[in-house]
Amino acid sequence: MPQKTARPTQPTEIGALYFQLFNEIGIIAQLSGNRFQRVLPQGLTVAQFGLLNHCVRLGDGWTPARLAAAFQVTKGTMTNTLQKLEAKGFIRVDPDPDDARSKRVFLTPAGKQAREASLKALMPELAQLPAGFPPDLAAEILPSLERLRIWLDTNR
Amino acid sequence: MPQKTARPTQPTEIGALYFQLFNEIGIIAQLSGNRFQRVLPQGLTVAQFGLLNHCVRLGDGWTPARLAAAFQVTKGTMTNTLQKLEAKGFIRVDPDPDDARSKRVFLTPAGKQAREASLKALMPELAQLPAGFPPDLAAEILPSLERLRIWLDTNR
DNA sequence: TGACGAAAGTTTGATGTCAAACTAAAAGGT
DNA sequence: ACCTTTTAGTTTGACATCAAACTTTCGTCA
Fold first, then answer.
1. What is the pTM assigned to this prediction?
2. Residues touching nucleic chain D (CB < 7 Å)
3. Which one of A11, A17, A139 has the shortest CB-CB distance to B17?
4. Going by C-beta distance under 8 Å and a sequence separation of 6 or more, which residues neighbour residue A1?
5. Which nucleotides of D are covered by protein (CB under 7 A)?
6. pLDDT digits over B69-86, tens only?
């Protein structure tokens, strides 16, 4: 195994490749997050909007633990997010009738409305994107990103 | 041109596509950041290591303003990062002889050493990555990500 | 049925980041 | 030369997040 005269890719080069990848991803996350944050109404954060959106698209009644897993944040973070949303009146958190440890998260009408308003506010932001970054490219790299995300998620 | 009876992609679908893209990117950034953070030595944060790494690869003597632009963070954030690194003895911040407003950031020997140690600590983390996410894929999507990052950067 | 490990949520303390207001210095225009 | 605008850096207050410790409840197994 130490016999490796013709290595196709040096470990340090591969490291640099992945490093660059995560660097770009980190900066994109930061820039897009800031951008969305700025246009979101009602003082909603990106995380809060994400949760409202999630509940609209996939249905509500989720437990905080499952939401935390879905968004890849700690349970403590989810507790915080839910408390903020409940304070704004956008969700309702009921005790789980079957499990006294657990809770269930439901959207309120105001929450659905806030999600609609957020989408409307986000649209102009997204609309100017295709000019610089065509949807084809987005669709092309999306499966790879999913794969990477899933791997990072399962192997930690 | 307005004749477009068979629209290939509805605006709302395109929105969903970009939305999913940023969502995946956000989660990957979070997961990889946490992962790196955990193995970094000396209480270094990802941002702090990034700065050390930057100075090694591209040379030091940068001003804080240029560093803030390079990392896409606010000047206040960069002030904070630099103060932490200076407190650890990893960088030296000198006044700019030509511009009394400005400063210059230099690596100390301890800083170079910390960067080396960080790379060593990061390697095992990166080494297990190719199994789930081959380098070819990384190399394939990297140009697109760069393009997206650059667009987000210039158009804000 | 009783005990112990696992799971759900919360709390605590620390940290990194942002936006915005502020000071100081340079640049530019008239 | 003076006044205005821009630029560099810091500070402040707020916030999202994390890790870790803690409480309560469930589930399992002996």
1. 0.83
2. A 45-48, 72-77, 80-81, 84, 99-101; B 30, 34, 37-38, 63-66, 74-76, 78-80, 82-83, 93, 96, 99, 101-103
3. A139
4. none
5. 7-13, 15-21, 24-27
6. 999 899 999 999 999 999
